[in-house]
Amino acid sequence: MAYSVVVNGKPMTADVDADTPVLWVLRDSFGLTGTKFGCGIAMCGACTVHVNGEARRSCVTPVASIGSARIGTIEALDRSAVGKALQRAWLELEVVQCGYCQSGQLMSAAALLSANPAPSDGDIDAVMSGNICRCGTYGRIRAGIKHAATQLASAKPARARERDR
Ligand code: FES
Ligand code: FES
To answer: Residue 138 belongs to what domain range?
Structure first.
C-alpha cells in the first residue's frame, strides 16, 4: 500500500506494508541514510528521528502510525537554530569518535534543547540515557549539549536587538 508522509517538510510516498518501520522507509524508500540501524528493538537510540518535534525510535514506529505527523531527520537538523548550535558544538568539542550513534544522539539532543533550553546535567542524563554510544563519548555529548545551550542563550538577546532595529 502507498503511504504518504511528510519528511523534512516534503511530502513523500512509499509503497510498503503498514507495519514497515519508519527507519526502513526513510533509508530504503527515500534514500535518507543518515538515520542509522542499531538494535531494531528501541534499545540503542541510533535510529532516533523527530515526529512532530519529539524524539522517536524509528525502528519500532510503523509507517502506518505516522498519519499527518511531520517527520524530521538528521538531514534537516541544520534548518533550526537549535540544530545549528548543536552541530557547531559537536565540531568545536570534537564530540564524535566512530560516529555511528551520533545522528541519533543529535536528534535526541535537539528534541531536548527545543523543549528545555537550559537543561541540568540530570535533565541531560535522563533524556540521553537511551542513546547508547559504544565509543563512550557520553561526557563530550553532555558538554556539547551544554555548550549549544549557552550559545543559544547568548544569541537570543542579539536576535531580539536585530528585531527591534
Ligand atoms: S535501532 Fe532503533 S533504538 Fe536501536
Ligand atoms: S561515536 Fe562511536 S558509537 Fe558513538
So the answer is: 80-160
pTM for this model (two decimals): 0.94
> Does residue 57 come out as left (phi exceeding 0), alpha (psi in the -120 to 50 range) or beta?
beta
Instruction: Compute mean pLDDT per 10 residues along the chain, 165 residues long, and list them.
Output: 97 98 98 98 98 98 98 98 98 98 98 98 97 98 98 80 61
114 and 67 housed in the same domain: no
Residue 105, domain CATH: 1.10.150.120
Assess whether the C-beta atom of 42 lies below 6 angstroms from ligand 1: yes
Residue ending a domain, choose from 19, 54, 75: 75
Which residue CA neighbors atom 3 of ligand 1 most closely? 42
Pure H helices in the chain = 22-24, 81-92, 102-115, 121-128, 138-164
